[in-house]
From TrEMBL:
It comes from the Bacteria. It holds the Pfam family Glyoxalase. Signal peptide: none annotated. SUPFAM superfamilies: Glyoxalase/Bleomycin resistance protein/Dihydroxybiphenyl dioxygenase. Residues 7-145 form the Glyoxalase/fosfomycin resistance/dioxygenase domain. This is Glyoxalase/fosfomycin resistance/dioxygenase domain-containing protein.
Amino acid sequence: MAITAIHPYLNFNGDCEEAFAHYAKVLGAKNTGIYRYGDAPPEPEGANSEPEGCGPMPPEFMDKVMNTELRVGELILMGSDCPPAFWKSGGENMTVSIQCDDPAEAERLFAGLMEGASTIQMPMGETFWARRFGMGIDRFGTPWMVNCNREG
C-alpha cells in the first residue's frame, strides 16, 4: 500500500510557532523542524506554486511558519500559518494531510479526492519539498493535502 500516513494538519492565523511550542511542551513531543515561507526558493520565471487565489505573500509573512510537525511516538501533528487569503475562523482551521511514498499513488489519491471538488487551492505538482503535492477542498467541504516527500 502506498499510503504511509494520514495526519491532522492545523492552520493558524500567525501564531503557529507559539502554539506548537506549547503543544510540544504539553505533549512531550519533538518538533522535527520549522520551515518558513521565507525559506522557499524563488519561483522560476513564469512559475506559480502558490495556492490559487493566494497571491504573493506579504513581506511580513515571510517569517511565518509554512510547515512544522510534532512527533509523539508514531503520531504526527502538523501545522502552519495559513496564508491571509485562506484564513477562516471558527474551527475551520484543519486540513487532512495524506502522506504517501509513491508519486503515481499521490496523483491517483488527489484526483479521486478532488473529483467534483469545490476548490483546488494548489494543483498536484512538484514543489521544493515534495515530489508531488496537491491541496484542495472536496465536494463535501473537507480540506485535503496529498504529499509525496522527496526522500520517499
